[in-house]
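USER: Note each token:
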Amino acid sequence: MPSASTQDAILAATEQLLRERRLSELSVADIIAAAGISRTSFYAYFGSKTAVVAECLRRVTGQVAVAVEPFLTEWEDGPEAAIRASLERWVQVCTVHGALMRTVSEEWPHDEQLRALWPEILAGFAAGTARVIVSARASGQAPPGADPDALAACLMWGYERVLHLALVGEARGLADPAQIVEPLAQLMVGSIFGRPTPATGPSCPRR
């Protein structure tokens, strides 16, 4: 009977191979060889290489959800600090899984399974962001502005593109994922709260 360790081996092997080649250049046979398993064991868990990528993405999404908790929960040191902390942790997770995230960003428009999964994941994060916007406006911390759902969706999809460009490293000014934290923090604070955010410092007092 297949074991969880077999599934983990498949996922780890796939992520490693994606650091070396594009998904289009990768075969199920390559994954099987890298994982050191049988063909039967592979198909006991996954029907295709894209199904493996989708499961990798689900697991990383769980890590991202934990990473962005400071923004979505209580702002002990103010929203600016919470936003920066969440973005720093998000970038760290995505950098560790950079090859996977680059692959998903490139392949989701062309693959039926990823096309169903990736927009749904981003929609979930956008919904959480929209709730924050509504709450911040209701409490008087943020001014009125664009429709919260539309604003949140623009932020999430914009972040997705910026992250992809930073992971690929071919766009001027976006050669290093670590360099996108401060600009994105400034963008989010300005978009939601209508004010600039300091470029440095661990926190900002609540206004």
In short: The domain at 54-193 is CATH 1.10.357.10 (Tetracycline Repressor; domain 2). The radius of gyration is 19 Å.
